[in-house]
Specification:
The protein is built from eight helices and 16 strands. It is of the alpha/beta class. The chain has two domains: about 100 residues, 3-Layer(bba) Sandwich (FAD/NAD(P)-binding domain), CATH 3.50.50.60; about 200 residues, D-Amino Acid Oxidase, Chain A, domain 2. A hairpin with a 2-residue loop joins strand 9 and strand 10. The longest helix has 29 residues. The radius of gyration is 21 Å and the shape is globular.
Length: about 325
């Protein structure tokens, strides 16, 4: 079967790899000159199934209202960007900010995230791929007693889902991450998830794409995907800047751009884009940086050490 994968980010490339493994003829299309050059290019560097948490949670509306007045707010909504899709997204978000909805959503996220982590571990074993990967766990850092109290609710769900975890006092946090010693006075404790990992998504995407190419996957770069051509309940082609392309099946892996392509064929995909920030910085003093990956629960900032010479800091929103 011939399959076209639209999008050469981490999801598109990984999908192409597995399809090629199954014996399909695969072509990947992307508007960029190479793989992983958009959302997959820079991020917080975490493979964190145990930390999978819905944005919609009890207490979020009040928190969000307070964040709007903070200098370093973890969430910002620009008035000029408010439109109908955003209002729908916010409405759906708020309706899920109940204890019942949170329990259901987090449990589902944990199951699929743990499964995905296991698949990645198997891929690493079977291919030998490396991507500045580390398997040292993740620590969610707490600055207030209330954050520690709220951690017990998450621990209940982690226990029910079979996810290993440990609630740490400040001293124990510093045993795992001595580089945080200078911030001892800011910490109340942390939640450690030993099964979580870290890695460079861009490097992973590049190296897996090279392996996929060796298996026969073809890549068509600098090609704009203009429209999906469909009739009734079937797709019969895609219109691109390189002309019309056809296949037996199609995979849409364009992230936040996916709804735009599906709207003309009356498929309503519940995906809305958000903007995050990341910073890659050199390490000047190894004694004062984490050895693995940590999340600041207050500011929703993640810091991951990817290599001896650099660390990656990323906004989770």
């Amino acid at each position: 079967m011939k399959i076209i994968v639209m999008g050469a980010g981490v999801i598109g490339v990984t999908t192409a790899w597995y399809l090629a493994e199954q014996g399909h003829e695969v072509e990947v299309i992307d508007r960029q000159p190479g793989v992983g050059l958009e959302t997959s290019f820079a991020n917080a560097g975490q493979v964190s199934p145990g930390y999978s948490t819905p944005w919609a949670m009890p207490g979020l509306p009040l928190k969000a209202a307070r964040w709007m007045f903070q200098k370093h707010a973890p969430l910002v909504v620009r008035a000029a960007a408010v439109n109908a899709p955003m209002l729908r997204f916010m409405t759906q978000l708020l309706t899920n900010c109940t204890h019942h909805a949170y329990d259901i959503n987090k449990s589902r996220m944990l199951r699929i995230a743990e499964y995905s982590r296991d698949c990645q571990a198997e891929l690493r074993r079977s291919t030998g791929i490396t991507y500045d990967d580390g398997q040292k766990g993740l620590i969610q850092l707490f600055r207030t007693d209330k954050q520690v109290e709220h951690a017990y609710e998450d621990m209940r769900l982690l226990e029910e889902s079979g996810v290993k975890h440990d609630l740490l006092g400040t001293d124990d946090v510093l045993k795992y991450e001595p580089g945080l010693t200078g911030a001892r006075h800011l910490l109340k404790g942390g939640l450690r998830l030993p099964g979580d990992e870290s890695g460079d998504a861009y490097l992973f995407t590049q190296r897996l794409a090279a392996m996929a190419a060796e298996k026969g996957v073809s890549f068509r770069f600098r090609t704009e995907i203009e429209a999906i051509e469909a009739a009734s309940d079937a797709i019969y082609g895609i219109r691109t800047s390189a002309g019309r392309l056809t296949a037996d099946a199609y995979v849409l892996a364009l992230g936040s751009y996916s709804p735009r392509l599906l709207k003309p064929i009356e498929l309503d995909l519940p995906v809305y884009p958000v903007k995050g920030y990341s910073l890659t910085a050199p390490i000047t003093d190894e004694r004062r940086v984490p050895t693995s990956t940590v999340n600041d629960e207050t500011y929703k900032v993640a810091m991951t050490r990817l290599a001896i010479a650099s660390a990656l800091v990323g906004r989770q929103n």
